[in-house]
Amino acid sequence: MSEKALTDTFPTASAVSLFNVTKNFTQWQRDNSGKGILRNLIKPEKKVIAALSDVAFDIGKGEFVAYAGPNGAGKSTTMKLLSGMLLPTSGEISVLSMSPQKQRRELMSKLGVLFGNRTELWWDHPVIQSFEWKKVVWNIPEPLYRKNLAMMTELLDIGGLLKTFARELSLGQRMRADLAMMLLHSPEIILLDEPTLGLDVVAKRQMIDFLKKINREDGVTIIVTSHDMDDLEEMAQRILMIADGKIAYDGDFDGLRKITGNLTRVVVTTENGFRPALQNAALLSSENGVHEFEIDLAQTPIKTLMRLLSEFDGVCDVEIKKAPIEQVIASVYSSWK
Ligand SMILES: Nc1ncnc2c1ncn2[C@@H]1O[C@H](COP(=O)(O)OP(=O)(O)OP(=O)(O)O)[C@@H](O)[C@H]1O
């Protein structure tokens, strides 16, 4: 598709668009037994995997989108397609009205990519040297580089790491340095594949707060994958879920909860060791007069629940909480299986 046709097909307010994208991989099957080696030589066995089949979605500029799915669902493949590292088998992809495959160079000046399990830092050099290298190779104007470096140093707390060799950094320090380097050229869109992988609570907090800030204040479009659903819910407004290479859900987190029947946690505090028996509710824990139930609001609406609870004399407090998103996702994944 030509550049013009691409802009005609995808609206300019769109940051990312996928139109019927399929990506197949060929996996050669190997059997190392004696007979297997011979068989492989005569007739190699191959398996074709549809990592993405006919995927279509659109992400607007300024959105913060979580991209989730079980292992092998196709998340990293999508990220690689969006950054031009892979070619789709069929279909069209547009990122900022550009084709990642045909206009990769141009696109990279507006895109930032971070794979949590990989580093772009020079292993045997101080962190600052990788930053300086990027400034030169990417042609980042000196004032912009200085401004971004100062901002990143402060917000990501990397001042003390700049003169340290990348190989001597801890995982959390390395991730922060990688994130800073990725942002030195002020990308409009950033793709993050498992950015919180292996981070401790403090490092994770820093990373999440920072991402929320640049999305909110600078309008940076962010697409993030993670297996930590609590992290995703905290960061993103929208969740796109992929299963077996197909989009299985696109909406907000509360909508996802509704799919699983709107499960809700109710914590009832009672006096005198009294334990209320609630119909259609599963008792999750009961300790020192605090009883936690799980109920399905689709089955027992809030009004009914409150009426039932008001009938008990010993109830002194009631707290209603959303079901943890991890549990909702686990239930969605098992229903898919
Ligand atoms: N380079 C490759 N060659 C062959 N098959 C591949 C390749 N990369 C990915 N695949 C296959 O494509 C499918 C999707 O893989 P992908 O890495 O996109 O999944 P994912 O959702 O990121 O999974 P995870 O959560 O485990 O990281 C898998 O079945 C995987 O085996």
UniProtKB/TrEMBL annotation:
Enzyme Commission number, as recorded: 3.6.3.28
Keywords: ATP-binding, Hydrolase, Nucleotide-binding, Transport
Enzyme class: hydrolase
Domain ABC transporter: 36-269
MF terms in GO: ATP binding; ATP hydrolysis activity
Keyword set includes Nucleotide-binding: yes
The protein, known as: Phosphonate-transporting ATPase
InterPro entries: AAA+_ATPase, ABC_transporter-like_ATP-bd, ABC_transporter-like_CS, ABC_transporter_ATP-binding, P-loop_NTPase
